[in-house]
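Subject: for your reference before the review

Hello V.,

The reviewers asked for a structural picture of the protein, and I figured it would be easier to keep everything in one thread rather than splitting it across files. Below is the amino acid sequence we used in the manuscript, unchanged from the supplementary table.
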Amino acid sequence: MRKMMMGSASTLSSFIVLLALMMVFSATTTLGWNVTYDHRSLIIDGQRKLLISASIHYPRSVPAMWPSLIETAKRGGIDVIETYVFWNGHEPSPGNYYFGGRFDLVKFLKLIQAAGLYSILRIGPVVAAEWNFGGVPVWLHYIPGTIFRTNSTNFESHMESFTTYIVNLMKREKLFASQGGPIILSQIENEYGYYEPSYGEGGKKYAMWAANMAVSQNTGVPWIMCQQFDAPDTVINTCNSFYCDQFTPIYKDKPKIWTENWPGWFKTFGSRDPHRPPEDVAYSVARFFQNGGALQNYYMYHGGTNFGRTSGGPFITTSYDYDAPIDEYGLARQPKWGHLKDLHEAIKLCEHAILNGVLTNISLGPLQEAHIYEDETGKCSAFIANMDDQSEKAVSFRNLSYVLPAWSVSILPDCRNVVFNTAKVTSQTSIVEMIPTKLMPTVSSPERNISSIQWEVFEETPGIWGKADFVTKGLVDHINTTKDSTDYLWYSTSVFVSRDEEFLQTGNQPILIADSKGHATHVFVNGQYIVSVSGSGSDSKFKFEKSIPLKAGENEISFLSMTVGLQNAGPFYEWVGAGFTSVKLEGFNSGILDLTSNVWKYKIGLEGEHLNIFKEDAMQNMKWKSTTNPPKNQTLIWYKAIVDAPYGDDPVGLDMISMGKGQAWLNGEPIGRYWPRTSSINDNCVSVCDYRGKFLPDKCDTGCGDPTQRWYHVPRSWFRPSGNVLVIFEEKGGDPTKISFSRRRVTGACGFVSEDYPSLKNTLKEQKSSSSNRASLQLICPDGTHISSIKFASFGTPTGKCGSYRQGACHDPLSMTSVKQACLHKKECRVVLSTGNFDMNLCPSSVKSLAVEAVCS
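And here is what came back from the structure prediction:
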């Protein structure tokens, strides 16, 4: 302090300013933010806010990824990070709470705060979310008299206790905006309006109870209820859908909030790969704000991974990528991320007019309209929409002409200049590859020159291993028996075959006929593997008929019944069961033999699970069998290998295309369920998706005949430089020697831009000069790489898409030279469509475009 006082006047002045700012910050964080709302928007400390939010679920990534995910969202124009709170992850048993590792909610929220962003906390605590059991702890179902999501005393009591615990934790950490924290909204329940009618009067009472219970928590911020069609006026009801532009809140004093805009869709094992084009996502967002929207949230902005056994469904894949703007591995998905970033920037230029101006809506044609927001000072912004899903239209607006592509919105921040059109994507398309990396063994000493993996194996015993957990007549429900402590339950019964049975002489094997509520099973007879059967994402139930070899005397029939994630939503979903309901044998002399009421033995889980074979602290206690040639195509076998981390710092996927079905761990961390189950080659898939027209999840599918999921995300933070323990449990049989890691890497970039595309690169003032408003194409390579070569460049009328561009009839022969001069050996470059770079007089009757494909290395 003394040294500073002796310094220059400017230094003293700077110190005083800094001290004043610190005092203001301290007062702000102590007093908090006043969050209210009116019919236009949320109001934070007296200022209306137009907000763009992104869903990032903390347990679907890892703490080491959180800062990068939040920063990538912020760079994408995001103001708010939204997350559910996952009850079953935080209260694994009654009254025992956990907030470590991926479930460190406080750390996640403080990182959001440090990034200068707001947060929406969707406490639920029923979340659905394609998460196991909808986020509710399974133990709650087994408290007598408990019925989920109705006026059940037990359910309401536990739900209130958990909600209160979370609220008090947030208060203790000063995370509500009213305390200076980032949380500006909280949500209670989730999409209950869909299911409330099934619960009758009890459902209505429960919904009102939930709202009143939440508001009574006195958080100092508003509460929301999504898809709650009879929400009381003490909360804000919100919309979830692919489109919410026509949504209207129940009460006129509430702002228009869109809690879930689905920029993609989730996947189920054995299904196609759904995609939603960026043009349509942008269209839906622009239409929402055009029609008076105040806050929009992408569900998901980063989907992430359902690690371990957290996926619900059933049959939801371990990947929860969701075709989101940030992919499962944390990389910006281009062009979706960049196109939405440009959209957000354009919308923000209109924020003042939207929130403070008077709205005028005018028709410009049968499916064309303009919304104009103009305040008393004359500040004006406009959205012009063409809702025709087939044809572009030319319209006249304020004495100027505009050409609107089909199914698009043009944004005019000054009611004159178009800075963005939702159908015109100028952001680059990144070429992303999974680069195979062979599993490399860890060499413990210089003397050991090991070039191949030293495998260790542990074989499960088919059927009841050890002593049965219980024996009873009849078939039991799988979930009620395991209480989701494991995916696996053994059913085993004995059948005596007399020597005079005709099938023993004829060789015609009897037929095993079985019905199951789901989800999957492996069938064994006398320890011999027979068949694997499963339901599907649309119906977990299955029935099968299979001939089986029986011998004279006693025969053991065993089923390894499996769940693949529990039900996560629907009326009375907690009562949906799994496991066998009927087992019969056909082909005996006496006719059909019904085994349903037989005496059955049961064993919960696998021997390897009971021995914690996948946990690091238990691995040395196992009698593993070492081998350099592990068994292949063998059922019920555990594999272990000690491997090095893949080279570099790229995100890593575990390639399981050579395996059947099972689970995987690295250093005791649960990678998740793997199952390279293929979709039908006869399904409808597209090579090019037409963004025009309303989107549904099956509109733009790819991957027909391919595995739904081949690679399984292994976070970099789970690796050590060497000595990593990879454990695989294989159920059906596969080849572990073909397992590999793959590094997910951007290896190239494509760009396509036309001379009539609007530009956001300059301010509106600069755009009055036609020379500064030239369209341009930008390419960026990842950190540590540069543009090493140009594979394609054409200015004129090029056609095709990234990876398969072709020259058109009109082509500037100097295109490649110009692009190389601007881009080669640079991390990023921008190529302007100007006379300095191209022949702008080329083919004057055509709209000219530039297409480029570059290699990053």
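For the response letter, the relevant points are probably these. The two ends are 51 Å apart (CA to CA). The chain is about 20% helix and 30% strand.

Happy to draft the paragraph if you're swamped.

O.
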